[in-house]
Amino acid sequence: MGYRVVDVDSVEPEPDRPCECRKLSDPGGLDAAAINRFRAEPGEQLPLAYHYHETQEEAFYVLDGTLAVETPERTYEVPVDDLFVVDPESPQRAYNPADADGAVTVLAIGAPPASGDAAAYDPDGDE
């Protein structure tokens, strides 16, 4: 048996991200899943680009605010305490709209951990 408590605020944010991203998998000792906490101010997006994963399932649990998720079919608004799930090969871009009242905080979980399976997606069809 093993147990760990991770002080999320002690984990340094990743550099060069469009919003605050704290990667928690390594501090938590997780091998089978990726877990990140994102905090995006109005106008900031969570991922580096509109993308999809070849094998990874993703789940975004909204802790605070409202998350917008753009997909090829529509844009979803995900309120606090709701979960947005993305299947493999499903393009998406999560963000906090520029006209939002405040920041959005999201716990993102992906399994298996993305190890190079992310692919950029061009919504205009130039993948």
Automatic annotation (TrEMBL):
The protein's name in its UniProt record: Cupin
Q: Which InterPro entries match?
A: Cupin_2, RmlC-like_jellyroll, RmlC_Cupin_sf
Annotated ranges, domain Cupin type-2: 38-104
UniProt-annotated stretches for the region Disordered: 1-24
Report the SUPFAM superfamilies cross-referenced here. RmlC-like cupins
Q: Where is the composition biased (Basic and acidic residues)?
A: 14-24
> What Pfam families does the database record attribute to this sequence?
Cupin_2 (PF07883)
Q: Which domain of life is it from?
A: Archaea
